[in-house]
């Protein structure tokens, strides 16, 4: 816990409330007498609860009905080729429930029964192969936790503060435990010819969303996944089988994976030429900027998760990640980057996975300019938005990993702002 000199500690805060003779309500001593929610037997303690068969597949309780994916109506022409956002402001820990993990579709989510699923491996291989879903289940499998981030995450913020909520500025991301077969295993089964240097992967949906991936990456850590968080993939996440490309742009994580072709060079498809390139200030474009650089965001307090309890103990929390390695440190600033203090990592950073951080303070009710700054184990330090703009201008959409600022007002409400 970080306390300013003379500030009350949490223990002292609670002791003071109890010494006053009243019950504690929302962290404050109740002055109006006993709290009936404690002193009186409530309805839920006077009757039977639901039996074990009421919800064969458990659903979130109604009191958490606002923890949902959301889209932005004006962002795309329709919802078929669009994106929605993970409610990161309302979650804790690091694992994203499948039911609220963001979606990105190029031609909508399709229904593909696993009995009808086929995966072809062809091109520069010794033996072209076709696998069924049942075939994939027979290979030795692995489990890995990875984040998936859309290259356009935070893309609307290039020109300035636009969207008022962590869900909308940083919510094109999720973090799940994937189970499946290493792509390397399947490629070795087919036998890659020496002249093979790339693979071209495509999905079974109408867009196919074909992308080229260097063979070295394919043989390193790519995963052909059919489970997430222990259960079958959801329809919107590529059921029955998707590709995982750890640390790299989400558009390369092909859903409904139907074909892997080994080639001598990149195919130069639409999704890697006219799309998912980074236009610089002089009009030239960078391509093949696959890795997602170190990034972080404070999820609470934030515009969708304001401070409602007034001054006193406050937990500041957020997420950090890096597509180049593991998060090693996260610093938090209360004053817009003038000074920094180290946050507490919930656990040591894990490669290509989200890391949860916390900073526990006693808030005195004054304004704050909250920022977080991530550092990964390669030594990379998350830059400011202005530092990115100086290098890349304002024409970009993708790969905005600049430091986010929330203006915390004396009321506890928060707003998306920038500092100079």
Automatic annotation (TrEMBL):
Q: Which domain of life is it from?
A: Bacteria
User: What's its EC?
Assistant: 1.8.2.1
Q: What does the record give as cofactor?
A: Mo-molybdopterin
Q: From the UniProt record, which GO molecular function terms apply?
A: sulfite dehydrogenase activity
Provide an example Pfam family for this protein.
Oxidored_molyb
Ranges of residues in domain Moybdenum cofactor oxidoreductase dimerisation: 286-404
Task: Give the protein's recorded name.
Answer: Sulfite dehydrogenase
Lineage at the top is: Bacteria, Pseudomonadati, Pseudomonadota, Alphaproteobacteria, Rhodobacterales
């Amino acid at each position: 816990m970080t306390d300013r000199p003379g500030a009350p500690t949490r223990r002292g805060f609670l002791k003071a409330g109890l010494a006053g003779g009243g019950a504690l309500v929302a962290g404050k001593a109740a002055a109006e007498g006993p709290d009936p929610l404690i002193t009186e037997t409530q309805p839920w303690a006077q009757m039977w609860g639901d039996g074990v068969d009421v919800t064969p597949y458990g659903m979130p309780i109604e009191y958490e009905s606002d923890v949902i994916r959301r889209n932005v109506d004006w962002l795309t022409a329709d919802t078929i080729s669009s994106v929605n956002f993970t409610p990161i402001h309302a979650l804790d820990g690091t694992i994203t429930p499948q039911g609220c993990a963001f979606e990105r579709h190029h031609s909508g989510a399709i229904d593909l029964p696993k009995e009808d699923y086929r995966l072809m491996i062809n091109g520069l291989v010794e033996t072209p192969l076709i696998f069924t879903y049942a075939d994939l289940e027979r290979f030795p499998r692995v489990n890995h936790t990875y984040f998936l981030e859309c290259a356009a995450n935070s893309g609307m913020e290039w020109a300035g503060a636009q969207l008022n909520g962590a869900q909308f500025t940083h919510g094109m991301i999720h973090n799940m435990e994937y189970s499946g077969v290493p792509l390397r295993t399947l490629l070795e089964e087919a036998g890659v010819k020496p002249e093979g240097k790339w693979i071209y992967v495509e999905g079974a949906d109408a867009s196919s969303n074909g992308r080229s991936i260097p063979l070295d990456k394919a043989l390193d850590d790519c995963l052909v996944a059919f489970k997430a968080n222990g259960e079958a993939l959801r329809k919107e996440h590529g059921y029955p089988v998707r590709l995982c490309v750890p640390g790299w742009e989400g558009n390369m994580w092909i859903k409904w994976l139907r074909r892997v072709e080994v080639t001598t060079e990149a195919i130069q498809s639409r999704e890697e030429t006219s799309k998912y390139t980074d236009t610089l200030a002089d009009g030239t474009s960078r391509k093949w900027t696959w890795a997602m650089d170190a990034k972080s965001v404070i999820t609470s307090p934030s515009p969708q998760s304001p401070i409602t309890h007034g001054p006193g103990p406050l937990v500041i929390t957020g997420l950090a990640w890096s597509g180049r390695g593991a998060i090693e440190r996260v610093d938090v600033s209360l004053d817009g980057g003038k000074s920094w203090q180290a946050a507490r990592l919930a656990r040591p950073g894990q490669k290509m996975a989200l890391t949860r951080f916390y900073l526990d303070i006693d808030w005195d009710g004054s304004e704050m300019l909250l920022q977080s700054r991530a550092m990964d184990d390669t030594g990379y330090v998350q830059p400011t938005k202005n530092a990115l703009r100086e290098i890349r201008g304002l024409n970009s959409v993708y790969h905005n990993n600049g430091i986010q600022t929330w203006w915390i007002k004396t009321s506890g409400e928060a707003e998306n702002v920038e500092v100079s």
